[in-house]
Predict the structure.
Amino acid sequence: MQAGRGFRFGQLRSLGRLWPWLLLLVALLGVRLSKGAPLADAYALLSRPFWPGSAQSEWLRSAQQIDQQSQLLQLQSDNTRLRRLLQLAGADNSLIGAAVISRQTSGWWHQLLIGKGSLDGVSVGAAVLAPGGLLGRVASTTPTTAAVQLLSDDGSRVGVWVLRIRRHGLLTGLGTARPVLRFLEKDPGVRPGDVVVTSPASTLVPPNITVGVVQHVDDLAVPASEAVVQLSAPVESVDWVQVRRGGR
Amino acid sequence: MAALHRHSWCGATALMVPLLTLAAPQLLKLDGVAPAWAVLWLLPWALVDGPVSGTVAGVALGLALDSLQLGPASELPALALLGWWWGRIGRQGPPIERSFSLGLLALLGCLLLNLSLLVPNAWRGELGWSQLQTLLAQTLLTALLAPMLCSLQLLLWRQQTAGPKG
């Protein structure tokens, strides 16, 4: 009996020594459940003096105007052009400029951390644009930062279509710089050089945003044709991005 | 007996791991892949402070890093296992000091960490060349950096745990 009591007291004493570590583990579980909100916000606060300057923002704006002009040239039907014009009517107010404060474009995760979060109106699922076209979508937000899942990430799936032939497909990230476009049908008639834009049928991203250019086509793929797409937005060099306010 | 975890500032250096993961300095990348900062911090910590502290540190690092990454993949199990394994190695044999030994332990640890991320992908049939490329680049880079960074940390941690000599 005495031995049993001693053992119990010994256990209690060791528990007493462990409680700071248990507290730390609970705190870290909190960090994990909040998707790293304290860490990401602390990093944003510490790195704020090193964020890109406003000149980059001006450059981004002018580059985006060029991008929009090229898109207008690509639109072939009146119906699509009218839809695009309607979108542009409120476009200026629906974009939030944000600095890229962390970048992982190789390795297991392809993601960006941007310096605007839920306090600035960034929401999960919002499309993230850069000069050249679509970069990805917001996957999670903290009050002052947001994590962006790039189109090249393993888990990225976005509905797109090839402008010339008007065939829909699913742009799937492979963890490489070039995602693959999986068509819904065999032999869709796509060829290298075709421009890929976001699909008007997609519920995740705004329609007709440039995504990239078809680089290689595999017509022998099963169950349907596949194409490797070179993304048009230079994710390695872009310092400022624009986020669509309110998701799609 | 080592009690590195009693020096709170020593534990606070673990914050460098998520910060370096986020900052991802371009100079320290191989083929666009950053080293496994968690491995480089955990190896000397566990060697000095033992298996229990190593496991707790591995779990803590795993939780912090998982919170920063998208997707369901987790580094926590591999880091906890590495913390325990390196802690046992540090407790049982003679003190590990050679650069080659540190590099080899870091290489094996990084390999295990990457395999723990790669195997679920392979299970789902999503294994690609880019993932093998990531595994090779990160393992090589971590093993090359370990002799430099881990030696310094080992020296520092052992000085802290040795205490004043009378």
The domain at 4-162 of chain B is CATH 1.10.1760 (Arp2/3 complex 21 kDa subunit ARPC3). Chain B has a mean pLDDT of 87. The CA atoms of residues 69 and 75 of chain B lie 10 Å apart.
